[in-house]
């Protein structure tokens, strides 16, 4: 009984993670689409750059907080950006994302994401320095 419930939980979490990954890739294609509104493109670029950056805003070695961006912040930002897309753009971009995942099996990487995270960290460091010194 417990093993069955645990398997269901693992399957649900795995399915959720797969959808989040697909929607992150969907945003990448949606940003390039001509019918995507500017505000959805702007948020999409930031979310995709951060999602594919190898550097986290909150490093994973910080207990509990390190995983908050991966488990809560990033999926919420992806969901928000996806909600801003027109239905036809979302459908076309999801089809492209599904095709990419079937053929490539991995997400692209983002050097822009590295720079985005570094700029945020430098800004926070400068702000902290100005406040306390």
In words, what does this structure look like?
The protein is an all-alpha fold. Helices cover 77% and strands 0% of the residues. It contains five helices and no strands. The protein has helices at residues 2-32, 38-51, 65-83, 87-103, 111-132. The longest helix has 31 residues, at 2-32. The chain is globular, with a radius of gyration of 17 Å. The mean pLDDT is 83.
Protein traits:
globular, 133 residues, mainly alpha
What would you say about this model in short?
The protein has 5 helices and no strands. With 133 residues, the chain is mostly helical.
Give the number of domains: 1
- Total DSSP helices: 5
Count every beta strand, where a strand is a DSSP E run of 2 or more residues. 0
Shape: globular
Alpha carbon gap, first and last residue: 58 Å
Sketch the major β-sheet. none
Poorly predicted spans: none
Order of helices and strands: HHHHH
Average the pLDDT over all residues and give the rounded result: 83
Structural class: mainly alpha
Q: Give me the oligomer status.
A: single chain
Q: Share of helix among residues? A: over 70%
Beta-strand content estimate: under 5%
Give the C-alpha Rg: 17 Å
Q: What are the SSEs and their pairings?
A:
Layout: H1 2-32, H2 38-51, H3 65-83, H4 87-103, H5 111-132
Helix pairs in contact: 1-2, 1-3, 1-4, 2-3, 2-5
């Amino acid at each position: 009984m417990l093993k069955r419930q645990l398997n269901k939980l693992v399957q649900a979490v795995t399915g959720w993670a797969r959808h989040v990954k697909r929607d992150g890739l969907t945003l990448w294609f949606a940003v390039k689409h001509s019918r995507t509104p500017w505000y959805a493109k702007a948020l999409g670029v930031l979310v995709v750059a951060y999602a594919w950056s190898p550097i986290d805003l909150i490093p994973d070695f910080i207990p509990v907080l390190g995983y908050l961006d991966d488990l809560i912040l990033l999926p919420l930002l992806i969901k928000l950006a996806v909600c801003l897309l027109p239905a036809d753009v979302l459908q076309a971009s999801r089809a492209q994302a599904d095709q990419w995942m079937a053929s490539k099996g991995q997400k692209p990487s983002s050097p822009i994401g590295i720079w985005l995270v570094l700029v945020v960290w430098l800004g926070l460091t400068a702000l902290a320095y100005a406040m306390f010194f």
